[in-house]
Predict the 3D structure of the following.
Amino acid sequence: MCAGELIPFASYLVTACATDTRIPAVCVLCPDPDALPFLQRIDAGGGEPWNAWAARRRILAQLRELRDTSARHGGRCVVGLHRHTAVPDFVLAGTEASLLTAFPVESGRFRTVCPTFPGSGPETPAAWWQIMVADNRTTWSSAIEPDSLPQWPTLYKGNATVRQIEPPTFRKWCTSTDGDRAESAWVAAAERIRPKAGHFRPVGLRPADGSAFAAGVSHRAPVTMEGVQGVSLFELACALNKFGQRTEVRATAGRILGEIVHDSLASLAEFRMIANSSVTDLPRTCYPYADQGISALYALTDIVDSDARLGGAIEDIRRLGSRLEARSTEAFRDAHLKNRIWVTNETTHELAARLCTASADDRRAEISGSVRDVDFESAGRDVTPWDDVAHILFFEMSGFDPVAAECDVLREYEKWWGPVEDRDGLLGTVLLRSTREACRRLWYAHKLPQTYLRRYAMESTDTFVELAAWAADRLDGFDHLTQLLAYLRHGSAHRPHTITHRRYPHIPATLP
């Protein structure tokens, strides 16, 4: 069999069933493109989320075509989706002849190999087939719908993004309808927002091109926006922290870091004002803190060695999440420095080096003219007043390190942003948000190690678990979660051997 012939071959068998009584039925098993093992194949091949979207759509389209062919020829085909990590895909004609196939990530098509039929060991197709049919990781279904959104694991960052060179645009497919609506609303309003805002500078909407490539990724058109190219402020902050290890530039690097953090906080303040106006007319619902925290902990079920250890922590998260949901009043910007881009053709190193020699006035003017805000899919949610501020101030490389023993967190927070007013609300927000992010990184390290290395290489390994533990130690009533965080923090065995421990040095940011 040639590459890509699984579905045509199955279609041939389906047609043959109508006239050849020797073939009583045809069964087809393919990877479930909404399951973790499918994503692990994408990860092993070095694929990005858009590769997963395109492969998912291709698989489901082929299976729908097969199902329709079967309906025209007596309906004697059964389709199954399996969630096995290392088991191949099958076409089974009757009970005697089968075709064993593997699924190559790079093309999203099927490669076929002909197995040896004699024998009764588990390596034979018939034996594998019996295992998979009896296993609860196989779903037999007629609901094969390529025109659907992915239902991937909660911790997977599944939004698909593709940059187009000419014309310069950036295309984004969101995994949720609400996220797509929010992204569209904010980039569509950008041209009205930018003349009135001094710090918040959202990228603008661009016409969709309706290309065959886009149709191959999803049935739904992407949100197409300005194709800004440059360096994220997170990448710039990482470079400034590295530059700042040299004594002669430490003070300058700290001032530049302070300038981009200060501008980002000012951008957040303007975003909130606009979100509470009628500019976007976007309805908002409460961010599901409890559900998001619980699903993150459940994802560690086969990583943490005791269900009992997780059980109490889940109840703590449930209570904490409910408290935070009752305090959620502000639109969610997802204001991490990763979501702000300094438009430039320079490398990160070149930009940081040049800024260290520029005057303060020139730097501020360039920030105003060059930095753009991206990623608005979360703007249809309400979060606590401290959530986005903590995204900027508390997380690594921002020049504000609450884990440091000498840091007076409340004083620093108020100096940069304003009165805390509710200490426990701030700490609780940091605790839940950091717990989820710590779980995400641990899950990626175990389940999708190649993607983990690409996505999180610029972070210290234990940043979020340490931040969560720091917050938990300062709150009462979350003992089980505190114990779980201590277990994760001190148990290096939880990291796969392929993940090396990283600890990056930091410098303090200087308030302009």
User: Anything to note?
Assistant: The two ends are 67 Å apart (CA to CA). Confidence is low (pLDDT under 50) at residues 1-5, 93-122.
